[in-house]
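Exercise: predict the fold of this chain.
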Amino acid sequence: MPKQKYIGIEISKTNNVLKRNCIRAELSQELERATGKNGWIIGFIAENSDRDIFQRDIEEMFSIRRSTVSSMLQLMEKKGLVVRESVEYDARLKKLTLTQKAWDMHNKMLESLNSMEQKLCRGLTEEEKNQFFYLIEKIRNNAENRGETE
């Protein structure tokens, strides 16, 4: 009789393998400087460069408390990754803008991400990838809605 497999454990094991591979990546030092959510924040601002991004957008996108985001952004400013700029339509608001250093980091992270994505998707059909995304979203939604029943 085969051992029972658990989705949570398989996701955790896969996450560990992905982390190990990222650590071995040639860009690991660059990515280390954008640890944790900083890299995601840089990516979010870069991907939305066609509109103004504010602290509250970061809070909502990543479900992070205001105080945490404020601390993160202050540190990112000190590291020379973002600047806060006033907007002419509301003096209370400060939009977040990436510095050239952050743009360079973002481009390197994208190269690394694309390389990893190619490796992970090797041998998968479009249908299999679509099925994976469908299932992982369903699992994530189940995890986020703990205690709720259908």
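Check your answer against the key: The chain has one domain: 7-144.
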